[in-house]
Prior knowledge:
The protein starts with a helix and ends in a 20-residue tail after the last helix. The chain has helices at 2-10, 33-44, 93-99, 116-122; strands spanning 11-18, 21-28, 51-54, 62-63, 81-86. By secondary structure, it is α+β, with helices and mostly antiparallel strands. The chain has a five-stranded mixed sheet. It has four helices and five strands; from the N terminus they run αββαβββαα.
Amino acid sequence: MESITIIFHLQQIIRVQSPDGVKRITATKRETAATFLKKVAKEFGFQNNGFSVYINRNKTGEITASSNKSLNLLKIKHGDLLFLFPSSLAGPSSEMEMSVPPGFKGFGTPNVVEDEIDQYLSKQDGKIYRSRDPQLRSMRTI
């Protein structure tokens, strides 16, 4: 039972957001970026270089397979949210290519614009600012 607990503590779940939604990838702190990116490619159905993964939503802090750094050295922790952006010409491998007729392959996917409210909310800190409720008096005044 002790070995199961140790294995559980070494595992971490990293969330990866793509245009198709968020998926959870199980990894370890010692796992290299290259190994992690292979798991991401498999989970999202991409071939080798069909996507890029970034630490930040604004496409900064790219995680590259060429670096042999561990997730721990990249400061990627349990529960972190990473951002996947497909390459302009690439898409998920098997399903997309099989379902698109040969004559339509040159068109690509349309650019999706994020709603204005989503852009606004992503820049906010998430706190609700309000004054103290007068009904919630401290115990000293009673």
